[in-house]
Amino acid sequence: MLSVKNLHAAVDGKEILKGLSLDVPAGEVHAIMGPNGAGKSTLSYVLTGREGYEVTQGSATLDGDDLLALAPNERAAKGVFLSFQYPLEIPGVPALTFIRTALNAQRKARGEPEVTAPEFLRLAKTKAAELKIDFDMLKRALNVGFSGGEKKRMEILQMAMLSPRFLILDETDSGLDIDALRIVADGVNALRSPDRAMLVITHYQRLLDYIKPDRVHVLSAGRIVASGGPELALELEREGYDKYARAA
Amino acid sequence: MSVAAAIRARDPAELPGKRDEDWRWTDLRGLVREVPAPSAPLDPATLRPGSFDALADEVVVVANGGEARIAVNAGGSRTVALRIVSRGAGAHAGRVSVSVALGGRLTLLESYEGEGAYLAHTALAFEIAEGAAVERIVLADDDAEGVSVSQAEVRLEPGADFAQTVLTGGARRQRLETVVHHPGGHAELRLDGAYLLADRRHADLTTVVTHEAVDGTTEQLTKGVVRDQARGVFQGRIVVAQGADRTDARMGHHALILSDRAEVDAKPELLIYADDVSCAHGNTVGALDEDALFYARQRGIPEPDARAMLTEAFVGEVVERIGHDGARELAAAWVSERLRGA
């Protein structure tokens, strides 16, 4: 599914990713852990095509397609979804309108017919109920005045409705209390399937109690410096990132 | 010194220009070297239907100048479409008087429809009696070559409501001015506007509100979107006279500049001579939020659509405050077409 090879990327001329390689096969959940400043968010932005993140070397492909050659919306239509660490507020655009616009734009890009209004509303109601989101909230401007936890839940709702194939969760647990974390994790776990893959970016191990990864990678100073099974996350929790920071 | 006088006398020296403080960003004297000959008469019967016609009880047309009078009797209620039409390259001036008697209600759907390189002036006088309510919605579709000035003077009596929304796409040079005499006494005033400008178009939304006595409210929200080499001007002045205590006045002006060569000039002014008042103003000019834009694109929305969606939402706040349902829908469609077509 996702294959990243020797990726170098710079922001404002400063190299942040320094030869990152990573393979996430379909059906698997991989966690990326690392200290602050290791390049975790940079990786998520480079994979989704944010402006200002300049790839200087290397490649990133999804099912063989060169992601780096595509516009952000084209990557989304291919199934790449980023759950933002800090979801943006979109004043004046009701959440429902925003999600429907996104869904239909993706479908159009893939040559699929648009969803009808009743179909869309039915889907929105079902998914909102699963995530314990008050449906009236979806009539309000997206994320405007929402609490941190509500914004994260809204990310998962969008994820559930857009049904992406490759999911990137950037610090999704930050700002969540334990109940909200469980709801969010249930929402994410419901999306696990043999034809999907996920990259879970997190500083703390806590989220991985709820979203169990198949593989754990340590990102330090712009490179993957160690990889292992779920036990690696526990070791990091115990011992910290120091030895990897030194290794990098 | 007035546009109407300049047209009457065919004397460009009568036009206001940049030496006049209130006209320094909308210089007519520097632009119009010669006042054109009077416009040829225009038969309203030859015009296509106006966009507001279907919503109105009555359609009033002022074509290439002329006079009109709109009156609502005490306790009456009407929706009137007022069409100010300009055709050709001549000069003309129009006068419209609007009176609403005690407790009357008027929805005025006013459109400026221009084709040609005209010089047009429209003077409107509103007399709104006690307990009467007026909603005025203005849709200005002037020609890119036209020069148009509309000046409205509104006199409110205590307990009257006046709500206004002006939407404009600008002209070669255009000013839509509203002067309100606010008597306080629980009269309520809303003065909103939006200018959506492309190419080399210019629009100037100027308002002057004078709170003359106690207990008056004014709420004002203006938004602008300018691109290419367009220029938007907002001048909002609120005067609270001595003794006009317990006045509550709020003014907001927010503009998006979508190109390096576009320009917005804003002058919000609060002149307060009373002691016990609550007044505030906010003014922002900036670009579209690039982070929000990336967020929308990450969800699959192509960049032009994402820009249009965010810009439309920005202007939408003004449109949503329109009270008349049909006019609000028309205004929303007009905004959408302007932003997506440009």
Report on the structure:
The complex is a heterodimer of chains A (248) and B (342). Chain A is 37% helix and 26% strand. Chain A is an alpha/beta fold. In chain A, the strands form 2 sheets. Chain A has a 6-stranded mixed beta sheet with strand order 6-7-8-3-9-10, sandwiched between helices. Chain A has a 4-stranded antiparallel beta sheet with strand order 2-1-4-5. In chain A, α5 (148-162) packs parallel to α6. Chain A is globular and about 55 Å long. Chain A starts with a strand and ends with a helix. The model of chain A has no long low-confidence stretch (mean pLDDT 93). With 342 residues, chain B is mainly beta. Chain B has one domain. Chain B has 4 helices and 17 strands. Chain B has a 9-stranded parallel beta sheet, with helices on one face. Chain B has an 8-stranded parallel beta sheet with strand order 2-4-6-8-10-12-14-16. In chain B, α2 (290-298) packs across α3 and α3 (303-320) packs antiparallel against α4 (325-341). The longest helix of chain B is centred in the last third of the chain and has 18 residues, at 303-320. Chain B is globular. In chain B, 49% of the residues are buried. Chain A binds chain B through residues 48-51, 71-73, 75-77, 81-82, 84, 87-93, 98-99, 101-103, 105-106, 109, 141, 158, 162, and chain B through 289-292, 294-303, 305-306, 309-310, 312-314, 316-317.
